[in-house]
Amino acid sequence: MQYHFDEIVDRSHTWSIKHDLKEANGKPADILPLWVADMDFRSPDGVREALKQAADHGIFGYSQADGSYFAAIRDWYKKRFGWEWQEEWMICTPGIVFAISAAVQAFTKEGDGILIQPPVYHPFSRAVIRNRRGLVTAPLTLSDGRYRMDLDRVEAAVRGGDVPLMILCNPHNPVGRVWTREELGALEAICERYGVFVISDEIHGDFSWPGHPVTPYASLSGAAAAGSMTATAPSKTFNLAGLSTSNIFIADPDRRRRFQDVLLDIGQENMNRMGLIACRAAYEGGEEWLEELLSYLKGNLDLVRRFTEKGSVPIRLIEPDGTYLAWLDCRGMGMTDEELDGFFSQKARVWLDPGVHSGEEGSGFMRLNLGSPRSIIEEALGRIEAAWEKQNA
Ligand SMILES: Cc1ncc(COP(=O)(O)O)c(C=O)c1O
């Protein structure tokens, strides 16, 4: 290992929402934060160097990406996913959550239905509800420890023609599924048949475990590209979330214009200079770092799996195909969601995301972020075990 993922970097008093909001959330001061999806690792050296150079230059005026920015992203997607897109498809936005809300406004009108597949990243439903659209759900199914899309439910939900938009999570946060080409193809057939435009949120696309290649939805076919918007960002991959930089792809020119119109309506024009600089440097030079990160995260996942297999605490790991999140089935602990949250936060002093944040389908589950030094994950698992033993002594 060339990189130092074992190093514990003190993030307290850095305005980190993961580390500095303990008191505000009523958490004990010594809790281990393994909740919101950012990692406790420093970004690649090349990114930090590029940012230092920009800081030393010292002028932070309005900025726009040039061809070198597009080339860095284009090469990344071509090399790692075999996905090619046209430069004009790409629009930079200050985040994916932002872009999803803009897309909701651009592609639907008040009262339209928008489909999601819970349990899923909670800002999806928020974007629908806050924009006064109708929330339509086709929950994932869980059998034999594996989540699947319920395509019959999807079809039943959109058949009436009043659901013009779906928000897909590919790979899926929190359950860790990397949707196969076949699954996406079947979904696409339904969406095409009923005229449902798809937002494919691919922010976790760089995290997949061996044997689970990620398929960009728009790479399925020309029709899939025309019928979708792809949301990508370097923020999960290279731990850049605080730089609020994401890259959105819309192939259809009319849809693209409608999306850009909404950006102007809400006053979004230029991007953050440091975010653009970091993004280009990450995609240009971050591949080796990412490969090492993936193998380190796999070690963390193995640790969690060994812990759940040991059976000292009745928690089951839902085996992920990708993402750096571990979705833990805690239903065997026999607690309500409130009790589960209290157990982990106050008794074990480990801050996880309650599954119900991803919808009622996440009841009885907790989400653990694997993106911390191994010693922290070990400490967290030890605390959970000790608290469970104490509670059941
Ligand atoms: C599926 C998904 N989409 C989007 C985001 C956040 O994206 P952004 O910070 O660019 O708004 C996250 C962060 O956890 C996520 O898991």
Descriptive overview:
The protein is of the alpha/beta class and 393 residues long. The protein has 2 domains: 17-44 and 287-391, Alpha-Beta Complex (Aspartate Aminotransferase, domain 1), CATH 3.90.1150; 47-285, 3-Layer(aba) Sandwich (Aspartate Aminotransferase, domain 2), CATH 3.40.640. It is built from 13 helices and 15 strands. The strands form 4 sheets. Strands 2-10-9-8-7-3-4 form a 7-stranded mixed beta sheet, sandwiched between helices. β5 (141-143) and β6 (146-148) form a beta hairpin. The model has no long low-confidence stretch (mean pLDDT 97). Bound molecules: pyridoxal-5'-phosphate. Pyridoxal-5'-phosphate (PLP) is lined by residues 37, 95-97, 121, 169, 173, 201, 203, 233, 235, 241, 246.
